[in-house]
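User: I'm putting together notes for a lab meeting next week and I want to include a structural view of one of the chains we've been expressing. I don't have a solved structure, so I'd like a prediction I can at least talk through. The sequence is below, exactly as it appears in our construct file.
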Amino acid sequence: MPNPRLSSRYAKSLLDLAIERGQQEELFADVNFLSRVCKGNPDFVNLLKSPVVKADTKVKIIKAITGGRVSAMMDTFIELLTRKTRESNLPEILSSFITQYKAYKNIHTVNLTTALPVSDSVRESIIQQVRKASGFDNIELEEKVDASIIGGFVLQIGDKLVDASIAYDLKAIAKQFDNNDFIYKIR
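Assistant: Thanks for the context. Below is the predicted structure for the 187-residue chain, given as structure tokens.
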């Protein structure tokens, strides 16, 4: 069961330790790697949550998966989680760490959804426009291609949403027809 308070505390402690030792960049890369493993492999997450598999077996499996690609600090952290029987919370802890790291580095995530992949020049133009409009210096653009929006784009910056998609426009027109707004304007 997700426990945001627990994941936030472990993530904060890990980030504080990394900052203290000057290894925050290296640890962020490790966390991103493990987060991709968790997102890409649901069986791995199920293994972490399984009460049948013993803790030492879980540690061996995690070390086999990471294969020396993570730092000693991350290895020690994973061993700590298994010793405290918190390994089932690893995906949430990793997600919380990424959020806290981005807040520490003042990195703002912007989600861009388009119907087709965007070119590098369009990507840079969007980043510049977002910087100018929001005042954010560090922007991380997460792109998603969704053909269902037909054309245009959907841009999400924090809690703000700019929907300039054709699908949204078509829904707005359909809503006007449903409400018979056009009849009142004709008469």
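A couple of points you could mention at the meeting. The domain at 4-103 is CATH 1.10.520.20 (Peroxidase; domain 1). The chain has nine helices and four strands.

User: Perfect, that's what I needed.
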